[in-house]
Design brief:
Length: 673
Amino acid sequence: MGNYDHLLSPLEIRGKVYRNRMLAGPTGFARFLTEIFIEGTNEMLEERAAGGQASVCVGENPVSYAHDPTDNKTGEPSRKFNMRDTDGPDFYTLKAAAELIKKHGALAFMELSHPGNSGTPDSVFPDIYGPVAFTREDGVEVKAFDRESMDRTIDDFVKAALFMKKAGYDGVLIHGGHGFLFTQFFSPRTNTRTDEYGGESIKDRARFPLEILKAVREAVGGDFIIELRISGAERMENGVTAEMMAEFSTMLSGLVDILHVSSGHYFHSYRTRELSSHFHPHACNLDLAKVISAAAPPDVHVALIGGINSPEQSEELIRDGYVDFVIFGRQMFADPEFANKVAAGHPEDIQRCVRCMRCYKGSVEHPDEIAYLEKHPLKPGPIDPRAAFCTVNPASGGFLFPGFHIKKADIKKKVLVIGGGVAGMTAAITAADEGHEVVLAEKTGRLGGILWFLDNEESKEDLKNFRDLLIRRVEGRDIKVMLNTPVSSGLIRQFAPDAVLIAVGASAAVPPIPGIEKAIPALEVYKDTCSPGKKIVIVGGGMVGCDTAIYLAEKGHDVTIVEMQERIALEMAFMQFTAVADRLTELGVDHLVNTRCKEIKDNSVVLEGADGSFELNCDSVIFSLGMKSRKDEAKRIEQMIPAGVKTVLIGDVNSVARVGDAGKAGFLAAMEI
């Protein structure tokens, strides 16, 4: 077990104590507290505070007439708080959220934002301002900030901060990164002014942000904390650099107490590392934090965000003096009990974020997806409250809906779970936690189901950790595990279950392509016994096919993907698609779309595209054409189960989906016993 003395050490700032060095970063939007998502948002805030983090921050709250840019994505009406009336309903709504956080010993923060030139005009506030005047691609005319509009914006920040102080918040986090107002002034890319608020010097380009910070500090006094989030670098051509932000940090003494180092741009979320994937290193912005931390004054504490999901790395970052705090974003959906588990000496039980991008989709960046969406625009649909917002935490409701809470059952029942994959293990764990007597039968010699392949997949270490966590939890519960045990009527009679949950999964679909017997199923390539040739054709460019292509290309194979659809990886969207497509490009993986495999030969494949048939030479062919539910096996098992016994099909055997969906299905099935 590691030593986490640095991570757990308290720190006092302006008379307020951060009980440790773990901060729950802002997720969601403050406006959700007045809409249909109020219950889920408040629950999210409270569970993070109860989970032991030192502070919890409510997400973006626009301070002025400029609307939140996310409104463009959802089509929802903008909802701005009245931050002038300290005796109105909005005041008491936000006050109640602060109280929920503080009652568990955490410090309460509100994130204040201003989108600048990316705001949304409406009939009440038609004018959008930025560092310079220009016409946006959507036709909106952006005006250049003048003295009057600057003063009005400064006043907006001051009024909002004072409002939050009176509402009981310990401080505010000013959003100065990700292409918002501050970054627009910092960046040579967007600030081409020639007056005292622009030019070559970061000191001049930072003049307006500093005026805001000075005014807020003067207004709130010395007993209120100000945190500032910046993009340590935009990671865009002619954008903000770490050296610029290091120089800016030297100007913050007495103004800012904690400087959050993030990176990137809101509308280019993946390629600029505003959000990271499993292809990025954990603590992916550490390179920026090192530069900035070295320059920051002693009274400006540095905090780091960016793919941090382990207490071991968090401890190292603080112990080695790189940063003073670590910030968790998506990790808080994965496990809001992170800090408590570290403090209790059980870091091995933390559900670590796998950066699958299901809770935050990010932006559309890749040209292939942009072109696809132009032909096939997304159609808004109802939000499913049971959607898997978090792959590794089926209890999470995200910030939209309340989560699901396990309660001890009134009547102890005998539960038989058939299948030891993600769905089966999650169901068994949940049923045991509810107090039921559980038997888990698995026909193979190991738990983990289809995720066995992760033993040899280094780039998915976090997903492997999740699989192994489920296995440890099964082994640590009062669950009778029966490996190498195909289900029989005798077993069912012997156990006499009150409920049977069938999670026998799915297997690779084998299409009727001539010569398919010469090809290798995709998952087989992860076995040590499989040795495909140098030049490989993968038939099927879905998620599994693309992941397999990356795995093989990283090992030095020359890979081409063949896909019948007009785009590869149609199961993926937004940032997830960009991550995979960019990685395929980096590795030199070619892909053919709108192309059908007609025949597989010994050293080639016969393909048919828009221009007719052609042959592609290769050493090995791998097929990845989807998974087929083992419904026949499930039906055979159902016939063995006595009438009146509750029987539920869960996971891939019911509907082939993703890991998070399987876990959620197993969790909910067990909850409903």
